[in-house]
Amino acid sequence: MTLRLTLRRLALGLAVLLLGGLLFAWSGLFSVRASSGHWPVTGWFLHWVMQNSVRTDALPVAAPEDLSSPALLARGAGHYATGCAPCHGAPGQPQDPVVRQSLPAPPPLVDEPGDWTPAERFRIVQHGVRYSGMPAWVAPERADEVWAMVAFLQAMPDMPPEEYRRLAYGPQAGGEAQAAGAAGLRGLARDGMADCARCHGPDGRGRDNEAFPVLSGQSETYLAQALTAFAQGRRHSGIMQPPAARTEAAALREIAAHYARQPAFPVPQAADPGLLAEGERIAREGIPAEGVPACLSCHGAAALARNPAYPRLHGQHASYLENQLALWREGQRGGGPFNELMHTIAERLAPDQAKAAAAWFATRREAPEQ
Ligand code: HEC
Ligand code: HEC
Ligand code: HEC
């Protein structure tokens, strides 16, 4: 007897298969136990699919030329210690046996860094991996931060544990809680402060060149507004949102007050005289043809004294200031209640004008008079 394949029979066959599949899933006979592991072929297939997807996703990504600057490594390591090491382990910190029991288990990135190009690592860290527990970056649009993490991942397998500890926890690793205690902080604020001091230092001066913005001497109101914006997800940063979100609001306010009390610390910075002259002109006069007001009308000595929501820019790292202006230009930076003002201004500044203004403010030791 021969069966003729008709459309009707084909549809019927498919419906029976679908129903069978549903019945099997409903019966509970398919095991979701992580402890049983995958069949080797399933494990291979899933990883193959992931590799292909990452490779194609990475095609349009161009890696920055230099991924070895100490600032990038420090930023990457600081976040890795709390955001990634609990799953992947770190130099001198073996992987936790508990996470080894998940399926798929996170690979130990020190011993098995994987054969990825920087662009592929960028995509894995930026978007995470579906069905695997590998999370996406908290602020995927912050490519600058994802590159800092990629820079660190490239360097990590050869990194001695002491160097990792210094990069991730700061030069006085372990001493921050005491430093915070000495500064008169109590309980919760002291614990939160130890986390902040890893990157910003107990005195808010930062470390590793321009890795972290200077907080010392900044106005308390501005610091508190920035921290609330990070904690509530209104200012996007995969590195700063987590520490702000895991610290109690009351502790954040105390820590903001602590950093505001620290003596201001202008960092000596040099720049090309032509660039500085252009920057000074923009700061003092603005760019009337483009509708850009003078920066000093809000960031000069008189305005800073009048309105504590205006941040001091003098003595801040030029690269940090320039990057914040770029984030506003691209519509990616939030902040306190007046941050829309800066969005409008930054949109009207060309990248080289932003660079010039940032460079000039960075070289000022005192709040400039208008
Ligand atoms: C909750 C646990 C978890 C956390 C937290 C986590 N990962 Fe992963 N990660 C995984 C898992 C699981 C995989 C395996 C994904 C796969 O192969 O499908 C993975 C894969 C990776 C890979 C690809 C490795 C390879 O060779 O396949 C990189 C790179 C990576 N993670 C980096 C990071 C970074 C950087 C962070 C912190 C920002 C991080 N991970 C945080 C679980 C985690
Ligand atoms: C892993 C390193 C790291 C930790 C931990 C950390 N920060 Fe930050 N912080 C950064 C980086 C990087 C930036 C710059 C963010 C950006 O580019 O958007 C920043 C920015 C800030 C800003 C904004 C400065 C400005 O001028 O707008 C404040 C305020 C701040 N941090 C306070 C804190 C406090 C308080 C804590 C502890 C609760 C903390 N940070 C913990 C790395 C860190
Ligand atoms: C009308 C007032 C005003 C003017 C004019 C102004 N700013 Fe601002 N600026 C602000 C405010 C308010 C903030 C804080 C935004 C927030 O809440 O995060 C700020 C923040 C900044 C920051 C971020 C600082 C940090 O620590 O993250 C930079 C950089 C900056 N301004 C640069 C400039 C430059 C350059 C100019 C001139 C071209 C300028 N601003 C003109 C009001 C102003």
From TrEMBL:
Keywords: Electron transport, Heme, Iron, Metal-binding, Transport. Residues 71-157, 176-263, 274-365 form the Cytochrome c domain. This is C-type cytochrome. InterPro entries: Cyt_c-like_dom, Cyt_c-like_dom_sf, Cytochrome_c_Oxidase_Subunit. The keyword Metal-binding applies. It holds the Pfam family Cytochrom_C. GO terms for molecular function: electron transfer activity; heme binding; metal ion binding.
